[in-house]
Amino acid sequence: MKIVAFNGSPKGKESNTHVMVGAFLEGAAKAGADVENVFLAEKKIDHCLGCFQCWASPAAECVLKDDMAELIGLFSSADIVVFATPLHNDNISSRLKIFIDRLLPLGNPYFAVDAGGETVHPNRGGECPTFVMIANCGFPEQSHFQVLRLLAQRMARNYKTEFVAEIYRGGGAWLTEPAAAEVVARYTDLVREAGEEVVAAGRLSEGTRRRLEEPLIPSPDFAGIYRQAVNRYWDEALGGRKQA
Question: If exposure means fewest CB atoms within 10 Å of the residue's CB, which of 172, 208, 219, 241 is most exposed?
Answer without folding.
Answer: 241
